[in-house]
Specification:
Order of helices and strands: HEEHEEEEHHEHEEEEEH
Structural class: alpha+beta
Oligomer: single chain
Strand content: 15-25%
Number of domains: 1
CATH architecture: Alpha-Beta Complex
CATH topology: tt1808, chain A
Shape: globular
CATH superfamily: tt1808, chain A
Distance between the termini: 59 Å
């Protein structure tokens, strides 16, 4: 019987001065081989390795994901996704919003193979929750990228500053100071996202 020569796993620290660039195909292979890592890839191919979410932020994420999931389960208007879901955007970037949603007809237009990998689609709705260590500028750039790639509505929830930035195509960013809830407008009809737990 032949035994495979398997080397033990070793952690690698990548200085911020080093930029790693990979193709979409390489990104998919890397993500599949490292399912416990939070990975994204910019439109120019830069690999982004994100630390795991802190427990408090993870709890807030789950609360918002749960509200989106329940609304979608009741309306059956599309597909809701959690923070571990990756999408291959039209500009070539691979992104994972904290919560997202795609209209059913757009999802159904994808092949089964496309649905099973990083779907080549930008969600209709995206939500990003800023943790204490997240760069606000980078998250704002990410939100603009989503809108430029086809998202119809985006919410950037900034717990640190107790505000929400609302992104819509062709409109200026709307800023709300410590709102109690957010309305899904015509994109998520009937959604009223309760932010009580997010601000606590």
């Amino acid at each position: 019987m032949t035994q495979a020569n398997v080397s033990p796993a070793m952690a690698v620290n990548i200085p911020t001065t080093i930029t790693l660039k990979i193709s979409h195909e390489q990104f998919v292979d890397l993500a599949l081989a490292n399912r416990d890592l939070q990975l994204e890839r910019t439109a120019t191919g830069e690999l982004i390795i994100m630390p795991p979410t802190g427990s408090d932020t993870g709890n807030k994420n789950l609360d918002m994901e749960g509200q989106l999931w329940l609304w979608n389960r009741q309306t059956k208007l599309g597909k809701a996704f959690n923070s571990s879901t990756g999408f291959h955007l039209p500009n070539g970037a691979d992104r994972s919003p904290d919560a997202s949603w795609v209209r059913q007809e757009r999802w159904d237009a994808l092949s089964l193979e496309q649905q099973e990998t990083f779907a080549p689609i930008c969600p209709d709705f995206v939500l990003e929750l800023r943790s204490k260590t997240d760069s606000l500028e980078k998250l704002q750039a990410k939100m603009r990228e989503y809108i430029e790639n086809g998202a119809c509505l985006g919410w950037l929830i900034d717990r640190k500053n107790q505000r929400v930035e609302i992104y819509r195509p062709g409109k200026n960013v709307e800023v709300l100071e410590h709102p109690a809830s957010l309305l899904g407008e015509d994109i998520l009809p009937g959604v009223v996202l309760d932010l009580t737990e997010v601000w606590s």
